[in-house]
Design a protein that fits this description.
Blueprint: H1 8-17, H2 38-48, H3 91-102, E1 121-122, H4 127-130, E2 149-154, H5 160-167, E3 186-187, E4 196-207, E5 213-224, E6 236-241, H6 248-252, H7 256-260, E7 278-281, E8 288-291, H8 302-314, H9 333-336, H10 355-364, H11 377-388, E9 399-400, E10 414-415, E11 423-425, E12 443-445, H12 455-459, H13 473-478, H14 485-493, H15 496-508
Antiparallel strand pairs: 1-3, 2-6, 4-5, 7-8, 9-10, 11-12
Helix pairs in contact: 1-2, 3-10, 8-10, 11-15
Length: 509
């Protein structure tokens, strides 16, 4: 049990709200948390209750990530600062993790033996290649190779034994027999890449309630090649762009009970929202844990997500995923015949300890920027539109992290990620037809919204959703369907001034 002293910000927030309601013992949120005393449990419930006053900001609302929030001037490096409460003696590990995050890997054999092992098939040479400035990826421009976007390849279970394996959470799905679980558009010298991602768009005009017409673009994906023969007919293609890496340690520090309190798989309250949790295996321990990272919540923690990226995106083995050939499928014999970057004097994998420890620490502690314009009248009106349109039914505004968080930097912080971290049916328009563990082909994890208003500042573009099809926030909202259809329709029915206010609120996050 950590002996972390609660942050002054949170203690002030709890004190400011403790007299609003004497008891919230019947509230679902925080009601089961074993890390809190009865007194703190009630106070945390008050702090995280949805606001009903949109005339002014809530206490400490500008501090999106509690004491970890970065107050640095927002520029292209806005997502790359360390947690503001990080003591000096821990910043060296953050800087070392940053160096490894940016490290360019090379093919084997190489004179730089601590940096070889790339591929043999891969999508990027470094983590930073996809997460540019620790931010969001984008679709390729016309004639350009995909850089921070790739195709996931998978099929659903075709036999009872395969269905049982998914039900036991032994696997998430089944890869293509030739191309594996991901299309690798790059390869080391002497080996053919698997092919090139292609995308075409069809315009889809949408008429809003006040008559304004917005043109959405519907993508169709394919593979130019493919260089190793046809894909299995059952293989589905799902395009994914890289996600921002800010605030990940805080997301991991949210108590399971606070996420599960929002789950309603059978929609017993009849509100049309039936979010469900994604249960996955911890890659190191094999324990069943709550998935909260990735587009379909397929990873339980930051380390698992990072190890998967090393393996599939770069082709680098780690102690967590020791296969030095990455996503080379058994049928790809030329790939499997190539040398690896394992150096026995350094360890049994291409990225031995402490690489994963440092990269994980770095990505867990990338700070969330402070909010802007929280007192602006238009932003406050937009916040009210966000609430009354039903957006918060899935984009849960705030949490208080665990007192007993693994890292005291993230412990007992009032944070504002705007996500319930559950799986939701998002309708036919966003369906990819690809099962990933608990998530079916229409389900996606609710994306956290903190930092979303700085996307253009950090990455120079405004592409949103899992495949970057939306070119701005309006398009992103209009693609929502399924469980989010009511909220989407409410947004579409707003007058332009109210829509602009809601967008101003999102831009302030």
């Amino acid at each position: 049990m950590s002996h972390f002293r609660p942050s002054r910000l949170l203690l002030c927030a709890l004190a400011a709200t403790s007299l609003l309601r004497p008891s919230l013992a019947d509230d679902k949120t925080s009601a089961l948390r074993s890390d809190l005393s009865d007194e703190d449990r009630n106070r945390v419930s008050v702090v995280t209750a949805p606001t009903v006053d949109f005339s002014k900001p809530e206490p400490f609302e500008a501090m999106s990530a509690g004491a970890t929030t970065s107050r640095a001037k927002p520029n292209s490096g806005a997502f790359s600062h360390f947690s503001a409460n990080m003591p000096f003696e821990r910043r060296q590990d953050f800087k070392l993790g940053n160096a490894l995050f940016q490290k360019l890997w090379v093919s084997s054999p190489s004179s730089t033996q601590a940096s070889d092992g790339l591929g043999p098939l891969y999508n990027a040479r470094s983590c930073q290649s996809c997460h540019v400035n620790d931010g969001r990826g984008r679709p390729p421009r016309e004639g350009e190779d995909a850089v921070s976007m790739f195709l996931r390849l998978a099929r659903t279970a075709s036999s009872q034994s395969e269905r049982d394996a998914i039900a036991r959470h032994d696997v998430l799905n089944f890869p293509d027999p030739i191309y594996g679980g991901q299309l690798q558009n790059l390869a080391i010298p002497g080996l053919k890449s698997e092919g090139r991602l292609t995308v075409t768009y069809q315009d889809m005009p949408v008429v809003l309630g006040d008559g304004e017409i917005i043109t959405l673009r519907k993508p169709t994906y394919g593979i130019d090649g493919p260089n190793y023969g046809p894909l299995d007919p059952a293989t589905t293609l799902s395009a994914r762009i890289a996600q921002p890496t800010l605030g990940l340690g805080l997301i991991e520090a949210i108590h399971d009970d606070d996420i599960l309190a929002k789950a309603d798989p059978e929609d017993r309250d009849g509100n049309g929202i039936s979010g469900q949790p994604a249960w996955v295996r911890d890659q190191r321990t094999g324990d069943l844990k709550l998935g909260r990272f990735g587009w379909k919540a397929q990873s339980a923690n930051v380390r698992d997500q990072s190890a998967a990226a090393f393996s599939h995106d770069i082709g680098i083995s780690t102690p967590d995923r020791p296969n030095a050939y990455g996503d080379c499928a058994p049928a790809q014999t030329d790939c499997l015949a190539l040398p690896t970057g394992v150096q026995p004097r350094l360890g049994t994998t291409e990225a031995p300890d402490p690489v994963m420890d440092l990269v994980t620490f770095y990505t867990e502690n990338l700070a969330v920027p402070a909010r802007r314009k929280v007192s602006d009248a238009e932003v406050l009106r937009g916040k009210e539109m966000f609430y009354t349109s039903g957006c918060t039914d899935c984009h849960t505004p705030k949490y208080v992290t665990r007192r007993d968080a693994t890292d005291t930097l993230q412990a007992f912080q009032l944070i504002w990620p705007y996500s319930d971290f559950l799986l939701h049916d998002m309708g036919d328009g966003l369906a990819d037809g690809q099962q990933v563990g608990e998530a079916n082909g229409r389900e996606w994890r609710t994306q956290p919204l903190w930092g979303i208003g700085l996307t253009k500042t950090v990455n120079g573009n405004t592409f949103y959703l899992h495949d970057g099809r939306a070119r701005d926030l309006t398009e992103a909202i209009l693609w929502h369907g399924g469980e989010a259809q009511t909220a989407r329709d409410a947004f579409a029915a707003l007058q332009k001034s109210d829509r602009q206010a809601l967008l101003a609120f999102l831009e302030s996050l």
